[in-house]
Amino acid sequence: MTKYDRNINPLRVLMIIVIISMLFCAKIVSSEELKVEMLDKSYAPEILYSEVGDKIIWPKSKGHNVEFVAGPTSVSLPKRSKMNKQYDIVLETPGMYYYWCTPHKGMGMIGLIVVGGDTSNKAAIAKAKAFGKSKKKLASILAKL
Question: Would the N or C end of the chain have less CB density within 10 A of its end CB?
C-alpha cells in the first residue's frame, strides 16, 4: 500500500459524487416544458414568461409556423420552423424574443417570450418589423408588460 492509497477516504469520494449528481440534477429538474398553442390566427399565450433553459413547444398546427424576428442583442435567433410541424426550442439568453407566424403576420399572429424576467430590450422589440394588424397588436402586447 502506498502513501496515496491511505489518504483516499471512501466516504469523501461518495460525498463528492453525491454533490456533483445533485448539482447536475438540479439543472435538469429546474427546467420546465412550456407550450404555446397556435390557434386560428393567434398564439396562446401571446406573452410567455419563461426561465433560462426552459423548453418551449409549439405543437403541430396546420397552416402555421414560428419565425423569430427580434431578440436580445448579440443573440443568434432560432431558425424558422417548418410549416405544419411541432417546434421546440430552449432559450439560454435572458431577454425578450418577438416572433410571428410567417403566413399570418399581417393578420396579427405574433407573440413575445420574456426569458428570465428580463425586459431590457423592450425598446428594440418595439422598433422591430411589424406588418398590418401586427403593428397595433405589438404595441398592445408591449403595453401589458
Answer: N
